[in-house]
Amino acid sequence: MDDKIKNNINKSQEFLKIKDFDTAETYLKKNLEISNDSFETFFLLGAISGIKKELDKAESYFKKAISLNSSHTNSFLNLAIILKKMNKRKESIEYFKKVIELDKYNLDALCALAQIFEEDNNLNMAENYYKKVIKIDFNHHIANHSYGKLLLKLNQHIKGLKLIEKVSGIIRFKKNIFEII
To answer: Tell me, which fold does domain 1-87 have in CATH?
Structure first.
């Protein structure tokens, strides 16, 4: 990697830390004048565009980053999130699935797929993804809560309420002891 490109990336990351996105973006755009093959430049430009809610730009930058490095899980994950925000659901699902191909334990992608399928009223698929998350992380708050609500929709009220109680931190008192559900 060219020293100027590396230096601009380092400077941009310093400005990202203090949330000065415009200055960080300026340094990264200098890299585009030097070369169009810096994966890190496109990834960071995608992240900044996403933060700034410039979703079309973010989509373009992340796709370019993926074309330069097709094994970077976070590029696929961020692109999938951007596409979901843009209501490009089918494409979003494809990219979330690609994340899982690269990292089968990626809880963010698994949860996102569960939520998308639940929103699309494909409750069985949603349930499968919530179960995968909970199998990986038994105490995953979002998955347990969402899965509990899904079980209520599936008329599995007792099981659903137990999950919701578990993540809500409801405390039951019994004589001189208490239990957290």
So the answer is: 1.25.40
